[in-house]
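Predict structure. Chain length: 456.
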Amino acid sequence: MKHIFLIAFFAFSIYSQAQETVNLQQRTFTLEEAIQFGLENGYNSRIAKKDVAIALKQKWEIIAQGLPQISGDANYNNNLKQPVTLIPGEVAGGEPGTFVPVTFGTKHSVNATGTWNQLIFDGSYIVGIQSAKTLLQISENAKVKTDLEVKKAITDAYGNVLLASESVTILKKNLSTVEKNLNDTRKIFENGLAEEEDVEQLEITRLNLEANLNNSIRMQSIAYDMLKVTMGIPVTEEIKVTDNLSELSEENFNLLLLSKEMNVEENIDYRIAEDQANLSEVEVKLEKSKALPTLSAFVNYGVAGYSDEFTFFNSDQDYFTQSVLGVNLSIPIFSSGMRSAKTAQKQLAFEQAKLQLEQTKNQVTLEIANARNEYQFALENYENKQRNLELAERIEKKNSIKFFEGIATSFELSEAQQQLFQAQQDYLQSMLDVISTKAELENLLDTTKYPENKDE
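Prediction complete.
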């Protein structure tokens, strides 16, 4: 008996630990928590962070080109077969017209050289520094754009989860009501007080509700997976949303947002287009700078050793030193019009970028106006669908009473039920539209500045 008690105790402990593990694995998120998690862990956000880090390294790469560059090299040669040179015989005391074979140098040789290179002046380097700053700004603004898109995507995915969950709840409630009506109608029919058609009509309604319920359950699972992918969570993990669709839509009911003003030039799409125009302008300067001279200098220092035997680690080995200081000036003189053609191309590209910037400004203005209209319509539609649902519920209730009193037909009841079911779905969708359109408008009105990065 004692052994059985111990086995049961350990089994219960293991089960409790397993349940705690499951509970720890299933994380819960409000919408704001999901957005914050996605901004830190979402795949697109993490990729954008890497782009900013790459831009920082590229900036330092360009800066480093104007700083001292030190290199070193070492060589060891072993002349397995030393080359033979013929010299005139009279040079070596021989007969004129003859040649004497001789070898020059030693069988072993080693040398090492260190070189310091320094760029003194290069117009393209100065422009390159400017382009590095512009490229960094582009990547930073791209990160802001990505964060806004991630926020919108998570909001939509989170809302779809709530919509699917509410749909399942409502369909289960509707199915329960219809099954009750069907059972009551069967009993009435069995007593000869109802037509068989009334039973069949309710059976059709029940079958349709069952199909819609099964589909909504599957859609709920898919919606959760989409949310997890958007947040950067593996689809194998379990999460749970904690917000309520109705409460969330009420929280997003903000009339002040419709009158919020902003400078279009602070919009992220405009800022990105402006960055591209700035980059095009820098490229024009870069082409022009290639007509300027380039000045650089170097100094090196080296040692060399020679021996017929490998004695380079011996203390009595002789080494010979050398050092060279040099300055190099390169002056572009004539390129047959190649430089001017390249400069003209970049100038035309810059003019294109300015036109695209102007187009973006007008497009953003239009998008904001359209987003305001969509959000205002969503708010008005939400109130309208709420009222429609109330009316549909009253109509369905009246027809249900009339049907069981023998005043209304099964078709009239079915029509009232279908109208109610549609009104329920429309109401749920209107709540989701409020959340989604507000997120879209907030993205366009967002003036978030990317935090200043510090070079590592």
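Summary: The chain has a mean pLDDT of 87.
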